[in-house]
Design brief:
Chain lengths: 267, 261
């Protein structure tokens, strides 16, 4: 069978995506430096914010459903997802710099499958990370009134954000092929996080920040996560959360595929 | 022939000048030390600004509360860079050449540490300027401002010792993130977000044992109206800085002594 025919068979490409996702996961598990920022940093920030700002509960207008840590954990889930996506993009840039990417291009593999493999791996990392964070939150006093269904929905939303972040940073990696640039992009995670009501209710943010949050899709995702976790629609709209997460995932993956085309055209 | 003290000063100055060359050679190298604390300052002010309206908060402006923290963070990151640069020199073999020179070994650390303190004035001032541009007032006047710069320089010195200690211990540039994360954690595990009476949970118990809580109090005399410049708000910070520098400096010198043995 010719290489072109192989590239057109969906079953073959599905196996390629799974294999590339498995490889990406194996690399991330093997290199602790890839995992630590995405796992440790959000948990540390969660611990500091949950304890350091919990007096905020006494502010008039602060939602009463669930514990304080249960409220701020949505921000930690988002942060972890964004960092997981960022490490995926950095790893892809590393593959480009290290020459592995060129070997992939020489194989009878559809270009989109290379991108999808990375995105699928990030979906898995995002989901696993969300389970871990929610379990840690539970140990430290968070309660999830939304039950198993709510927790599952929160895990899915987090995974979608991780996949979207992997797509966006993958596009950057494919455009630039520079690990250094991806590393310098790290502060963007906090810009995205802080311009959404990640740790505090939207109505209690400063007026300027409140105005900005409306334009950040992560606002609706984090509010959706809180709504499903605490089974309280006053905290946000799950439908809006899923719509934004799906839009981000599709858009970012499409961007990465386009960047891949541009890169292989130039090669 | 120059005397011992004059020779030491000469070597330290030479090392200081060499370390300062980084500013010109690595253009934009100072940017992360300014950018990261600024993002945290603006982001946290936007997120948690309403905390300033809680009873018991010593200022109405939450940014005034956070601004010294951000200045100290920037200075701390500049200090940590001394360790990262030392790790690079060790990896590339330059440090071995310096060790074979007749210069006393402690001076090989003194130069980069003093240079990082000089460099730390840049992020501390830039962050302060942004905070002032966003409407934060200097309620503590000149004395408060002086206290803030002492706190920033002290933080930088402690962070530089910490960085040098790790660089000498692990002798690889990969230690960079560990240095910066250590600085990040040390500063945040304190009264970073709220004053001690409003801290709840484990952080309320831990913060009084963190020396940075007192260094922050020293720096907050500049912008927090409820922490007016006074000796009572000053001496705990000075003791904390002296303690951190003494302990971390001694450990760094011990690690330096072990190199090559």
């Amino acid at each position: 069978m010719s290489a072109v025919a192989l590239e057109r068979r969906p079953a073959v490409q599905a196996r390629v995506i799974v294999a590339l996702a498995q490889r990406a996961l194996a690399v991330q598990l093997r290199r602790a430096q890839f995992l630590i920022p995405a796992l440790v940093l959000p948990l540390v920030l969660l611990a500091v914010i949950a304890s350091g700002t919990s007096a905020g509960r006494n502010l008039p207008g602060f939602p009463t459903s669930g514990s304080y840590i249960g409220f701020v954990i949505g921000g930690a889930l988002l942060q972890g997802a964004l960092l997981a996506g960022m490490t995926a993009g950095t790893a892809m840039a590393g593959d480009i710099e290290g020459g592995f990417f060129d070997r992939l291009l020489a194989a009878p593999v559809h270009r989109a499958s290379i991108v999808l493999g990375r995105v699928v791996a990030s979906l898995v990392v995002g989901a696993a990370q969300a389970c871990l964070f929610l379990a840690v939150g539970l140990i430290f006093g968070a309660d999830y009134a939304g039950g198993v269904l709510g927790v599952t929905a929160a895990v899915v939303l987090t995974a979608m954000v991780a996949g979207a972040a992997a797509g966006a940073t993958g596009a950057l990696a494919l455009r630039t092929g520079s690990v250094e640039l991806l590393r310098n992009f790290f502060p963007m995670v906090f810009v995205l996080l802080f311009t959404a009501p990640a740790f505090f209710p939207r109505q209690l943010l400063s007026p300027a920040m409140h105005a900005v949050t409306r334009f950040n899709p992560l606002t609706y995702v984090v509010e959706g996560i809180r709504a499903v976790l605490h089974d309280d629609r006053a905290l946000g709209s799950p439908a809006a959360g899923f719509a934004c997460a799906a839009g981000l995932l599709t858009g970012a993956t499409a961007l990465a595929v386009l960047a891949m085309r541009a890169r292989t055209r130039g090669a | 022939m120059t005397t011992g003290v004059a020779y030491s000063a000469e070597v330290t100055a030479a090392m200081w000048r060499r370390s300062l060359l980084e500013i010109r050679r690595v253009r934009g190298g100072m940017l992360p030390t300014i950018l990261a604390p600024l993002i945290f300052l603006l982001g946290n002010s936007g997120q948690f600004g309403r905390l300033g309206s809680l009873a018991g908060f010593p200022t109405d402006s939450y940014m005034a509360w956070l601004l010294p923290l951000a200045c100290l963070q920037g200075a701390g990151f500049a200090g940590g860079a001394a360790g990262a640069n030392l790790a690079r020199d060790i990896e590339q073999g330059l440090f071995d050449r310096l060790r074979t020179s007749p210069a006393p070994r402690p001076l090989l650390l003194a130069g980069p540490v003093v240079a990082s303190m000089t460099r730390s004035v840049i992020p501390a001032t830039a962050i302060l300027a942004v905070g002032l541009a966003f409407g934060t007032g200097l309620s503590g006047g000149v004395l408060g401002l002086l206290a803030l710069y002492v706190a920033a320089l002290g933080t930088c010195m402690a962070a530089a010792m910490w960085g040098c200690l790790l660089a000498l211990r692990y002798r690889t540039q990969q230690v960079g993130p560990l240095i910066q994360n250590g600085v990040f954690l040390a500063v945040f595990l304190s009264t970073a977000y709220t004053p001690q009476p409003l801290l709840q949970g484990w952080l309320g118990t831990f913060a009084p044992y963190n020396p940075f809580t007192y260094v922050l109090e020293l720096g907050r005399q500049a912008t927090v109206s409820g922490v007016e410049p006074s000796w009572a708000h000053t001496w705990p910070g000075l003791v904390a800085i002296a303690g951190m520098v003494a302990v971390l400096g001694a450990l760094a010198l011990r690690a330096l002594g072990r190199i090559g043995n």
